[in-house]
Write a structure and sequence with these properties.
7 helices; four-stranded mixed beta sheet; about 200 residues
């Protein structure tokens, strides 16, 4: 089967800047990098958008986290890494497969009605990503929301700060009450994406 190029009409452009303007370790101003950390066209149920994430880094020579890159947490919530489909598309595929028991061809047909350009095989890949996201939210459900920050801080300590930047940006952007909203969104996308 011949692979066809997508003909996407981008309806909007979003360039996200990091939520941090100063280094959380030393307090010095972060410098903007001259290039985007990443950029891509993302297909959502209501059309394609261009998303880019500007990055900043600490240039303080005395900071032990010098050259650490800070990206936008908001940009990372548009889609998952190495994917050009929005989280709304991924969640809708999972909903149709799990709740309405549609097969690959039926889901493909519905997505074409929304104008999403996707191959049938890609639906299986996105459904696998949906299952991973759902598994993560179920694991988070085991932790009470008011204790979530304690668990993330311990994960951060265990993993030498790998999660700290994204977690702090997430906390700064959304706070704890919105965490429940994000978790419930993955479980019931039908409210956001009616069929």
């Amino acid at each position: 089967m011949v692979k066809r190029a997508k003909n996407l009409e981008v309806k909007a452009r979003y360039i996200y800047n990091p939520e941090f303007t100063v280094c959380p370790h030393c307090g010095e101003a972060l410098w903007a990098r001259p290039h985007y950390q990443w950029r891509k066209t993302v297909q959502q149920l209501d059309g394609a958008v261009y998303v880019a994430s500007q990055a900043r880094e600490c240039v303080n020579p005395q900071c032990e986290h010098r050259r650490q890159v800070y990206t936008s947490a908001a940009a990372q919530m548009v889609t998952v890494p190495e994917c050009t489909y929005g989280l709304d598309v991924i969640a809708q595929i999972g909903w149709w497969r799990d709740r309405e028991h549609l097969n690959r061809q039926q889901i493909h047909q519905r997505l074409e009605e929304y104008g999403v350009q996707i191959g049938e095989r890609e639906i299986d890949h996105l459904y696998a990503r949906y299952q991973v996201l759902l598994g993560c939210t179920e694991r988070l459900d085991a932790i009470p929301v008011n204790e979530f920050h304690t668990h993330v801080e311990s994960w951060t300590a265990d993993h030498r700060g790998l999660f700290s930047t994204r977690f702090r940006a997430f906390r700064a952007l959304f706070g704890w009450k919105k965490l429940t909203v994000c978790r419930s969104w993955v479980k019931s996308p039908v409210k956001l994406c009616p069929s």
